[in-house]
Amino acid sequence: MTDFLTAIGLMFVMEGVSYALFPEGIRKMMERVIMMPQGHVRFAGLTLAGLGFVIIAVIRSF
Fold this sequence. Notes:
The chain is mostly helical. It has three helices and no strands. It has one domain (2-60). Helices cover 90% and strands 0% of the residues. The longest helix has 23 residues, at 38-60.
């Protein structure tokens, strides 16, 4: 459970830093995402989740 909460906290830190450092870029990205078809957004989300899972699996295997 500690690892899970640490991962959630790290996610918040990384997202917060991106909003703080690149507010205009984040705004433009959100506008683009709103214009994308729902299927494309879903595919991107699943792809990123899968990539994250692979990264975690590789790190945990060492």
